[in-house]
Amino acid sequence: MKICVLPGDGIGPEITAEAVRVLKALDLKIEMEEALLGGCAVDATGNPYPEATQKLARVADAVLLGAVGGPQWDSLPREQRPERGLLGIRKDLGLFANLRPAILYPELANASTLKPEVVAGLDILIVRELTGDIYFGQPRGIEVRNGERVGFNTMIYSESEIRRILRVAFEAAMKRNKKVCSVDKMNVLECTQLWRDVAIEVGKEYPEVELSHLLVDNAAMQLVRAPKQFDVMVTGNMFGDILSDEASMLTGSIGMLPSASLDANNKGMYEPSHGSAPDIAGQGVANPLATILSAAMMLRYTFANEAAAQRVEGAVKKVLAQGFRTGDIFEPGTKRVGTREMGDAVLAAL
Ligand code: NAD
Q1: Measured from the CB, is residue 328 less than 6 Å from ligand 1?
Q2: Residue 302's domain spans which residues?
């Protein structure tokens, strides 16, 4: 198993170090090699996704990423911003399916801003299309028309792109509670009318799965009103960007949420759902659990090692039950620990 490790910027190096320790402790045949992505890559090479990283990422079976970005790179030309590195590697590796589970651990029920009865036992999976939509559509730009500046982007999806992401959602639902909710805005956007039509077609291939549809505005509302009605939610790149962040906050801590981005052959990039948290970088206080849980998803989806995945997830549950908390999930009566100590606790639980 070849893993390309991309620590990235901000808290990225601190949290990936803990996930790497966990992977090493599992006694599996794993080779890991590090490379640069994001702001650190811009500083070193001028390119947020340098050639050496491209080579390594392409031959690896999986990529473990910390996070990229930070205020020091925000004023660079768009092509050199760290986020371009992230979009670049997703596109380069053909990672079209982003899987983001939002699970509420019972020990952290108070961390949610919603009432415990609304979120207790929450377990939903947001499947977001990652390589198409308005984020990549052409034409795009800012230009002067009739004496004023105009900004424009193109929302575009082909039916094959829609079909493959819907299949990922239906396959995931088959292993869960057999419910898929497809989210679109078909009342105003033709592109998403096609999305709905194709969703209905793909749904016919999965008669055991209950398919429903929501307009994105209603979906955003339902997610905070009654999130437990959902099992798998599937949507396009831009709607998914927003809804997956909303869903993650139902659980109260972004520091707990892993994600997987897969290609057609289950090669994947695994990363926490949060960003590089420049406000706490270098302090040793970041929560490494989202990254450790991302490594567990890697074991499950790319390496098809369910037992190892569950071992890691079980260790995380155990440290929460033991009362270990980083600052982001701390409550009076629990033990406040830093990034390294949290990693130590997971290793001990393993
Ligand atoms: P963020 O997720 O980095 O931080 C939001 C808040 O959550 C901050 O207060 C931060 O301290 C806290 N937080 C995040 N992760 C945490 C953790 N593991 N433990 C404890 N607290 C944690 O979002 P932001 O502030 O909007 O963005 C910061 C930078 O990250 C920006 O440059 C942005 O572009 C980038 N970003 C990168 C990714 C990625 O690499 N996939 C995703 C989102 C944002």
Answers
A1: yes
A2: 1-96+280-350
